[in-house]
Amino acid sequence: MANEVRAVVSRAKGEPVSLETILVPDPGPGEALVRVQACGVCHTDLHYKLGGIGDDYPYLLGHEAAGVVESVGPDVTDVAPGDFVILNWRAVCGQCRACLRGKPWYCFSTHNATQKMTLTDGTELSPALGIGAFAEKTLVAAGQCTKVDPSTPAAVAGLLGCGIMAGIGAALNTGSVGRGDSVAVFGCGGVGNAAIAGARLGGATTVIGVDLDDRKLEWARSFGATHTINGSSEDAVARIQELTGGFGVDVAIEAIGLPETYRQAFYARDLAGTVVLVGVPTPEMKLELPLLDVFGRGGSLKSSWYGDCLPSRDFPMLVDLFHQGRLPLDAFVSEEIGIGDVEAAFTKMHEGKVLRSVVVL
Q1: If you classify domain 167-305 with CATH, what class do you get?
Q2: pLDDT tens for residues 212-245?
């Protein structure tokens, strides 16, 4: 029997989203029905709305979510009704070559729910990142549910489902930031500031935030940046070298997804340093670098997809750090909004006025 719920739908490229009634099936084998309690408004949802990811409209938006499992299908053993969970978009298969090598965070065969959620006329919806959580209930693969401490506020927990995990993971998992390291983060929005927080957790002693917006640089300092640079008035690369004895940083994290800032990150690192790309570029973007510089500077050029996270390992750990007072996840929540306020939240996010608006149901 299908569940009728309210949800935020993007029907066509570039058009305002709409609040509609959708049908969510009861869970089948390997699936879970989750009552969504909170869902962050992420740039990825805006990319779906604007056609930057695909053309499989209508989209059911929302993916940065936490809630309570309402029911599960046959053969589901890892979660049960009543469990408080964070949703993830990387349900690992356990059988692909990455999983069998003991590196499930690289899983090449992640999966989602098999059944489709639909509009009331039967039109199938494409759930954002296989989740679709701007909805009172959503259907996901059971492996997309990660149990965490139920005393955690849902508005805080849900943010680990995407952007905050991507930033923290870019520093700790992909960049392997360690004690005494120097780090520069280009772009101090939600993901970039999470990378700054992650760098401090890893023990970095010099953490430099770079942005064009003084408001975002103020946020960066609140999350642990020891220095900030406004790239509109300073040469970011020269200033970073000045702050690091003329050498550059051990790890440079690009959290915007632009060729120009990637180039800055490349030249702002020390010899044998690491560049991590966690910002999402658009399909038409091209990067040009002298191959001799790529060779001569050594080190590593890495891409970080979802912060190279393993949700079952990383989500509970980060929630525990939050409860210990060592990770200020609540500081990322700029405002709590209703399910009908997503379009206005997109505008605020695009204008850089918020770190995260969070839909609370």
Answers
A1: alpha beta
A2: 999 999 999 999 999 999 999 999 999 999 999 9
